[in-house]
Design brief:
Number of helices: 2
Oligomer: single chain
Strand order of the largest sheet: 1-2-3
Low-confidence stretches: 104-120
Largest sheet: 3 strands, antiparallel
């Protein structure tokens, strides 16, 4: 990004790139908030649906698994289904935001490389 002849980089270009990345990030976050993923447990007897923002939206329990004398198993299956759905939502987040986060050098700040500044 250093100008020919050793001049300073084009700050306008850097700002435009940063703005474009910000817009892509906002779009990806909006898509994630609207996305819904499911997780299951007990061979599909319990299904949980969460948003990309990790909000539990629905929980479906097959009546075959409901045993009034064994609520612990049902509770375990609910927890497992929610964990599975949450894990799937986190994977979706990584897929959506991973390429954008890579542009920030992993530290949240853009990696501008060597800007040709003294001492670099």
């Amino acid at each position: 990004m250093v100008q020919p002849g050793g001049g300073m980089p084009d700050m306008q270009q850097i700002l435009q790139q940063a703005q474009k990345m910000q817009e892509q990030l906002v779009t990806a976050q909006q898509e994630l908030a609207a996305a819904e993923v499911t997780g299951t447990a007990g061979g599909g007897l319990v299904t949980a649906t969460v948003t990309g923002g990790l909000e539990l939206k629905s929980l479906v329990i097959d009546p075959k698994i409901v045993d009034p004398d064994d609520t612990e198993t049902l509770a375990d299956l609910v927890i497992a289904a929610v964990r599975d759905a949450t894990h799937n939502a986190q994977k979706l987040t990584e897929e959506k935001l991973g390429p954008l986060a890579g542009g920030f050098g992993g530290g949240g700040m853009p990696d501008f490389g060597n800007l040709g500044l003294p001492g670099q």
